[in-house]
Design a protein that fits this description.
two-stranded antiparallel ribbon; 9 helices; elongated
Protein backbone atom coordinates (compact mmCIF):
# COMPACT_ATOMS: atom_id res chain seq x y z
CA UNK A 1 0.00 0.00 0.00
CA UNK A 2 1.12 3.53 -0.74
CA UNK A 3 -0.28 5.69 2.09
CA UNK A 4 -2.44 8.57 0.88
CA UNK A 5 -1.07 8.31 -2.65
CA UNK A 6 2.26 9.80 -1.58
CA UNK A 7 5.03 10.34 -4.17
CA UNK A 8 7.27 7.30 -4.58
CA UNK A 9 10.50 6.28 -6.29
CA UNK A 10 11.72 3.02 -7.73
CA UNK A 11 15.25 1.76 -7.19
CA UNK A 12 16.57 3.31 -10.39
CA UNK A 13 15.43 6.76 -9.34
CA UNK A 14 16.74 6.26 -5.80
CA UNK A 15 20.18 5.49 -7.24
CA UNK A 16 19.94 8.52 -9.52
CA UNK A 17 19.14 10.78 -6.56
CA UNK A 18 22.11 9.28 -4.72
CA UNK A 19 24.34 10.15 -7.68
CA UNK A 20 25.46 6.59 -8.45
CA UNK A 21 24.68 3.95 -11.02
CA UNK A 22 22.05 1.35 -10.30
CA UNK A 23 24.72 -1.36 -10.24
CA UNK A 24 26.80 0.56 -7.71
CA UNK A 25 23.72 1.34 -5.64
CA UNK A 26 22.73 -2.29 -5.41
CA UNK A 27 26.26 -3.46 -4.64
CA UNK A 28 27.26 -0.85 -2.07
CA UNK A 29 24.23 1.03 -0.74
CA UNK A 30 20.91 -0.81 -1.19
CA UNK A 31 21.18 -3.13 1.81
CA UNK A 32 21.78 -0.29 4.29
CA UNK A 33 19.09 1.82 2.67
CA UNK A 34 16.48 -0.94 3.01
CA UNK A 35 17.20 -1.25 6.72
CA UNK A 36 15.90 2.30 7.18
CA UNK A 37 13.43 2.89 4.34
CA UNK A 38 10.76 0.18 3.91
CA UNK A 39 9.55 -1.12 0.58
CA UNK A 40 5.93 0.06 0.31
CA UNK A 41 4.77 -2.98 -1.70
CA UNK A 42 6.51 -5.92 0.00
CA UNK A 43 4.09 -8.48 -1.46
CA UNK A 44 4.76 -7.17 -4.99
CA UNK A 45 7.66 -7.67 -7.36
CA UNK A 46 7.97 -3.89 -7.57
CA UNK A 47 10.35 -2.09 -5.21
CA UNK A 48 8.86 1.32 -4.41
CA UNK A 49 9.99 3.72 -1.71
CA UNK A 50 8.47 6.85 -0.21
CA UNK A 51 10.03 9.99 -1.70
CA UNK A 52 10.18 11.93 1.57
CA UNK A 53 11.75 9.02 3.44
CA UNK A 54 14.26 8.47 0.64
CA UNK A 55 15.36 12.10 0.54
CA UNK A 56 15.71 12.20 4.32
CA UNK A 57 17.91 9.09 4.30
CA UNK A 58 20.12 10.39 1.50
CA UNK A 59 20.57 13.72 3.34
CA UNK A 60 21.39 11.98 6.61
CA UNK A 61 18.26 13.34 8.27
CA UNK A 62 15.77 11.51 10.55
CA UNK A 63 13.42 9.32 8.55
CA UNK A 64 9.85 10.67 8.78
CA UNK A 65 7.14 8.24 9.79
CA UNK A 66 4.52 7.23 7.27
CA UNK A 67 0.92 8.21 8.09
CA UNK A 68 -0.94 5.72 10.26
CA UNK A 69 -4.39 4.27 9.66
CA UNK A 70 -6.58 4.00 6.60
CA UNK A 71 -7.17 6.97 4.31
CA UNK A 72 -9.47 7.33 1.26
CA UNK A 73 -6.48 8.24 -0.92
CA UNK A 74 -4.42 5.15 -0.05
CA UNK A 75 -3.25 3.27 -3.14
CA UNK A 76 -3.92 -0.45 -2.73
CA UNK A 77 -2.42 -3.51 -4.37
CA UNK A 78 -4.52 -6.27 -5.93
CA UNK A 79 -3.92 -8.30 -2.78
CA UNK A 80 -5.27 -5.45 -0.63
CA UNK A 81 -8.32 -5.11 -2.88
CA UNK A 82 -8.96 -8.87 -2.80
CA UNK A 83 -8.99 -8.87 1.00
CA UNK A 84 -11.40 -5.93 1.16
CA UNK A 85 -13.81 -7.39 -1.40
CA UNK A 86 -13.47 -10.96 -0.16
CA UNK A 87 -12.38 -12.33 -3.54
CA UNK A 88 -9.29 -13.81 -5.16
CA UNK A 89 -6.56 -11.66 -6.74
CA UNK A 90 -7.35 -13.06 -10.20
CA UNK A 91 -10.98 -12.02 -9.71
CA UNK A 92 -9.83 -8.48 -8.89
CA UNK A 93 -8.09 -8.36 -12.26
CA UNK A 94 -11.15 -9.83 -13.98
CA UNK A 95 -13.38 -7.21 -12.34
CA UNK A 96 -11.04 -4.43 -13.54
CA UNK A 97 -10.95 -5.85 -17.08
CA UNK A 98 -14.73 -6.18 -17.28
CA UNK A 99 -15.46 -2.76 -15.81
CA UNK A 100 -16.85 -4.00 -12.49
CA UNK A 101 -13.94 -2.21 -10.82
CA UNK A 102 -11.94 0.77 -12.02
CA UNK A 103 -8.82 -0.09 -14.04
CA UNK A 104 -6.80 1.55 -11.30
CA UNK A 105 -3.63 3.56 -11.70
CA UNK A 106 0.04 2.69 -12.03
CA UNK A 107 3.20 3.66 -10.21
CA UNK A 108 6.32 2.45 -11.99
CA UNK A 109 4.36 -0.40 -13.51
CA UNK A 110 2.60 -1.47 -10.30
CA UNK A 111 -1.19 -1.56 -10.72
CA UNK A 112 -2.93 0.09 -7.76
CA UNK A 113 -6.46 1.10 -6.74
CA UNK A 114 -7.64 4.08 -4.70
CA UNK A 115 -9.11 2.92 -1.39
CA UNK A 116 -12.25 5.07 -1.68
CA UNK A 117 -13.11 3.41 -5.01
CA UNK A 118 -12.61 -0.07 -3.57
CA UNK A 119 -14.75 0.69 -0.53
CA UNK A 120 -17.43 2.13 -2.79
CA UNK A 121 -17.40 -1.08 -4.84
CA UNK A 122 -17.66 -3.13 -1.65
CA UNK A 123 -20.46 -1.06 -0.14
CA UNK A 124 -22.42 -0.59 -3.36
CA UNK A 125 -21.95 -3.86 -5.19
CA UNK A 126 -24.56 -4.56 -7.87
CA UNK A 127 -27.71 -5.87 -6.21
CA UNK A 128 -26.45 -5.12 -2.70
CA UNK A 129 -26.59 -2.20 -0.30
CA UNK A 130 -26.87 1.45 -1.17
CA UNK A 131 -27.63 2.00 -4.80
CA UNK A 132 -27.26 -1.71 -5.52
CA UNK A 133 -30.87 -2.79 -5.76
CA UNK A 134 -34.29 -1.48 -6.66
CA UNK A 135 -35.98 0.63 -3.99
CA UNK A 136 -39.59 -0.08 -3.14
CA UNK A 137 -41.93 1.69 -5.56
CA UNK A 138 -39.29 2.24 -8.23
CA UNK A 139 -39.85 0.77 -11.70
CA UNK A 140 -38.19 -2.58 -12.10
CA UNK A 141 -36.52 -1.85 -15.42
CA UNK A 142 -35.42 -4.42 -18.03
CA UNK A 143 -35.47 -8.02 -16.87
CA UNK A 144 -32.09 -9.72 -16.77
CA UNK A 145 -31.49 -12.59 -19.12
CA UNK A 146 -30.20 -14.60 -16.16
CA UNK A 147 -29.27 -13.85 -12.51
CA UNK A 148 -25.55 -13.52 -13.32
CA UNK A 149 -25.87 -11.14 -16.26
CA UNK A 150 -22.90 -8.70 -16.33
CA UNK A 151 -21.11 -10.71 -13.62
CA UNK A 152 -17.48 -11.30 -14.75
CA UNK A 153 -17.52 -14.68 -12.99
CA UNK A 154 -19.82 -16.03 -15.68
CA UNK A 155 -16.97 -15.71 -18.20
CA UNK A 156 -14.59 -17.47 -15.84
CA UNK A 157 -17.13 -20.28 -15.49
CA UNK A 158 -17.59 -20.51 -19.26
CA UNK A 159 -13.83 -20.65 -19.83
CA UNK A 160 -13.51 -23.39 -17.22
CA UNK A 161 -16.18 -25.46 -18.97
CA UNK A 162 -14.41 -25.01 -22.30
CA UNK A 163 -10.98 -26.04 -21.02
CA UNK A 164 -12.08 -28.91 -18.76
CA UNK A 165 -11.52 -32.46 -19.94
CA UNK A 166 -14.66 -34.11 -21.40
CA UNK A 167 -16.75 -35.74 -18.74
CA UNK A 168 -15.27 -33.74 -15.85
CA UNK A 169 -17.97 -33.39 -13.16
CA UNK A 170 -19.16 -29.82 -12.68
CA UNK A 171 -18.68 -30.29 -8.94
CA UNK A 172 -14.96 -30.82 -9.49
CA UNK A 173 -14.71 -27.77 -11.76
CA UNK A 174 -16.64 -25.71 -9.18
CA UNK A 175 -14.26 -26.81 -6.42
CA UNK A 176 -11.24 -25.74 -8.48
CA UNK A 177 -12.84 -22.38 -9.28
CA UNK A 178 -13.66 -21.78 -5.62
CA UNK A 179 -10.04 -22.46 -4.69
CA UNK A 180 -8.75 -20.14 -7.42
CA UNK A 181 -11.20 -17.26 -7.17
CA UNK A 182 -12.92 -17.50 -3.80
CA UNK A 183 -16.68 -17.83 -3.13
CA UNK A 184 -18.32 -21.17 -2.32
CA UNK A 185 -18.39 -24.30 -4.44
CA UNK A 186 -22.19 -24.07 -4.57
CA UNK A 187 -21.98 -20.55 -6.01
CA UNK A 188 -19.65 -21.76 -8.74
CA UNK A 189 -21.93 -24.72 -9.47
CA UNK A 190 -24.75 -22.26 -10.13
CA UNK A 191 -22.46 -20.13 -12.29
CA UNK A 192 -21.36 -23.18 -14.26
CA UNK A 193 -24.95 -24.26 -14.81
CA UNK A 194 -25.85 -20.76 -16.02
CA UNK A 195 -22.78 -20.53 -18.28
CA UNK A 196 -23.57 -23.92 -19.82
CA UNK A 197 -27.04 -22.70 -20.77
CA UNK A 198 -25.83 -19.50 -22.45
CA UNK A 199 -24.84 -19.81 -26.13
CA UNK A 200 -21.24 -18.70 -26.65
CA UNK A 201 -20.84 -17.64 -22.97
CA UNK A 202 -17.40 -16.13 -22.51
CA UNK A 203 -16.84 -15.97 -26.29
CA UNK A 204 -16.28 -12.44 -27.62
CA UNK A 205 -16.61 -13.64 -31.21
CA UNK A 206 -20.32 -13.79 -32.14
CA UNK A 207 -19.51 -16.17 -34.97
Amino acid sequence: MIPRGRPVLNETDVARRAGVSLTTWRRKHAAAFREHVPDLLPESRYLLYDLAQTDAYLKGQPIPQLPDGEHPDDLLTADDVAQILGINISTVRAYATRGHLSPGTTRYGARLWIRREVHDRRDNAPGQGKGGGRRAGEPQGPRKAHPYENDPRIDLAAQALTTAAPGTPKSRIATELAELHGHTRRTWERLLATAAAIPHAGDDDPS
